[in-house]
Design goal:
With 385 residues, the chain is of the alpha+beta class. The protein folds into three domains: 88 residues, Rossmann fold, CATH 3.40.50.20; 61 residues, Dna Ligase, domain 1 (2-Layer Sandwich); 188 residues, ATP-grasp fold, B domain (D-amino Acid Aminotransferase, Chain A, domain 1, 2-Layer Sandwich), CATH 3.30.470. The chain contains 13 helices and 17 strands. Strands 9, 10, 11, 12, 13, 14, 15, 16 and 17 form a nine-stranded antiparallel β-sheet that branches. A hairpin with a 5-residue loop joins strand 9 and strand 10. The longest helix is centred in the middle third of the chain and has 17 residues.
């Protein structure tokens, strides 16, 4: 049986997930009511997915674990992008893998990511590869200050990057990032950060969610407002055109997210978007959809990879998503806030770690923002700056 076979009972579908973090947990939360069973492969403890499906705890290169994992599965997906691409390709020889491993290949390397944007005519900031101190000096001459030096691989939540504002910052910067292949990007004086989450099916149906506005602190997403206020039709079209083009180029199946910088154009009324990053998976800036959209990004990802019809992606409630970082806070106090919906990840607390989020709903965007401010007073601290 393959996903989407006519007459195939949904309850017979078995989905394998590479990774065992909170995104895997939320995929299972969304998929199990549809009758879909889950199996996870993660080399670590994988606290969030405990009780949500079978967990194969083994190294990625364990052949016995490979055989146990693929046995009886209908489709495989992943919940973070640092899965070994070769493993995803090996699995794809036995079981369909969605999104295609080619999407992993692009997203894992910032140079490949930016180059793909450029090749598709998607506007992005200036960038150059940096493979050593000499190449960094040449790249700075071309890009200028300020600039951001990033490792090409394994950077997330603000890790693996340095802002270079003056020549003194450049000295030793390549070495401080581990002397690994890097990319230098022009610093973008953006007005705000927006992201678009969308879902695409195997037959090419593309369904975007509304654009949302994100706030990061030290590279970590702390807040998402859905929908973003004051988005023009031109900006919405830029975002949807870019994400659609990328999804089609990758023959993408599942949920995809692209983060953008909104910047000023040539006149006061002229706005444009610069693509920053792509996530080939469900995304933190789409967590609001669990309570604020007609169908969550998680459920639609499961639907797409299983060949099931998509659900509507429209707004049900204006929502502010607030990440709980480092500590959970007082659950009772959080839930006492008007419009609050708490999502705990089942993870142990430690500084800088996302351990949950709260979706704050309101009848209007302003009402949701006001309620989120009240929540911030309850959950005080630098995490919600």
């Amino acid at each position: 049986m393959t996903p989407g076979d006519a007459g195939a009972p949904i309850a017979d579908l078995r989905v394998g997930v590479l990774g065992g973090g909170q995104l895997g947990r939320m995929l299972a939360e969304a998929g199990r009511p549809l009758g879909v069973a889950f199996r996870f492969w993660d080399p670590g403890e994988a606290e969030p997915i405990a009780g949500f499906g079978e967990h194969i705890c083994a190294a990625w290169d364990d052949d016995a674990a490979f055989e146990r994992f693929v046995d009886g599965l209908d489709v495989v997906t992943y919940e973070f992008e640092n899965v070994p691409v070769e493993l995803a390709r090996r699995i794809a020889e036995v079981v369909p893998v969605h999104p295609d491993p080619a999407a992993l290949d692009v997203a894992q390397d910032r140079l490949s990511e930016k180059s793909r944007f450029e090749s598709l005519g998607i506007a992005t900031n200036a960038f150059l590869p940096v493979d050593g101190p000499g190449a960094l000096a040449s790249a700075i001459e071309a890009v200028g200050y300020p600039a951001v030096l990033k490792t090409r691989r394994l950077g997330y939540d603000g890790k693996g990057q340095e802002v270079l504002r003056r020549p003194d910052d450049t000295q030793g910067a390549f070495e401080r990032l581990g002397s690994v292949p890097c990319i230098l990007e022009a610093f973008v004086p953006f007005d705000r950060e927006l992201s678009l989450v969308a879902v695409r099916t195997a037959d090419g149906r593309f369904a975007p969610y509304p654009l949302v506005e994100n706030t990061h602190v030290e590279g970590i997403l702390v807040r998402t407002e859905a929908p973003a206020e004051g988005v023009s039709a031109a900006i919405r079209d830029q975002a949807e055109t870019a994400v659609r083009a990328l999804a089609e180029a990758l023959d993408y199946v599942g949920t995809i997210a692209v983060e953008f910088f909104e910047v000023a154009g040539g006149s006061a009324d002229d706005r444009r978007l610069l693509a920053n990053e792509v996530a080939p998976r469900v995304h933190n800036s789409g967590h609001w959809t669990q309570d604020g959209a007609v169908t969550s990004q998680f459920e639609n990802h499961v639907r797409a990879v299983c060949g099931l019809p998509l659900g509507p992606t429209g707004i049900a409630w204006p929502t502010v998503m607030v990440n709980l970082i480092g500590r959970r806070g007082d659950a009772e106090a959080l839930l006492a806030c008007d419009g609050a919906r708490l999502h705990d990840y089942g993870k142990s607390e430690r500084p800088g770690r996302k351990v949950g989020h709260v979706n704050v709903l309101g009848s209007t965007g302003q009402a949701a923002r006001d309620r989120a401010e009240a929540l911030r007073a309850v959950y005080a601290g630098p995490e919600l700056r």
